[in-house]
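S.,

Sequence below, as promised.
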Amino acid sequence: MKLNCEGCAGCCLDWRPLASTPSNHERRGPGEPLDDAYNLVPLTRDEVARFVERGFGDALTPRLWRVDEETPGVVVDGVRLAAVGGRPVFFVGLRNAPKPVAPFDTDRRWLRTCVFLDPETLQCRIHDADTYPGECGAYPSYNLDLGVGTECERVEAEHGGERLLDDDPGEYEGPLLGPQALGAKLFGYPDPDELAGAVERMREGALRETDRAAFVGVAAGSRPGTLDVDDERAAAGTADVLDADSWVGRAIDEWEAAADGEADNTGDDAAGVGNDDTAAIDGDETTTDAIGSRAPDAPTGDEIEVARGAPETPGWDAVDDAE
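The prediction came back faster than expected:
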């Protein structure tokens, strides 16, 4: 599989404010995510545990789904949630943050991106680390095998150029689907009553640190192939998330503050395309009106992230030389 990723990062950021026809592909089917994250990458149990062990539990966030009356579910905070065996099911993915980026040869603008995306090079800061998610490494192989549209093709259609250079998915570890996903990528929260308040906060984009920690702990303590949870392991994971103080969590706070500082200056400069959802976020942070607005004087990734301990990215010349 050959891709042209330089200057793109379409799979790592929410570029709906730059699209005349924003995709809603994550909100089709029997379940509707309560958050508005775009391209959330579901992590496996082992990947969740690895992030927590490395001190990056504050980089993780959960996703729940709203379902109709015909779909198995449980009601919490007035919302019918997708459930298996009476347990609300959820993914754990990577948080996002507003960052000043310039994908697809556009002007530098505030967009929601993966917390690990370098806003200048548009490269992943953990691409060569053992925490790099398997699903990120395989993308878009899953889509090609399943006949589902890729972010590469959406970028080509909207902004031109060639991103997907061939349609051979290549060799990769297949996606976890069906029953085998339980406890391995799709987790069941043991006690729905404990989620009272948290579901409403997720809908409002106001999850607390304690909310996120509880979900991550359950994922880390889950047993693959089942809905069982090791209570001791889950409690330890929750505690580790609450203790986490990584450069990621601190950078998110700084990016939010910087974007909020621009919110009063958006005026007619925002790139809005009539999509009321584009300024919404992943259920972790405070909504900012700066999303989509130009960011010529915004801080750099070095100032916000590298200064707090983030690894630098090699740049695209280094990638070209290695090929």
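The two ends are 14 Å apart (CA to CA).

Coffee later?
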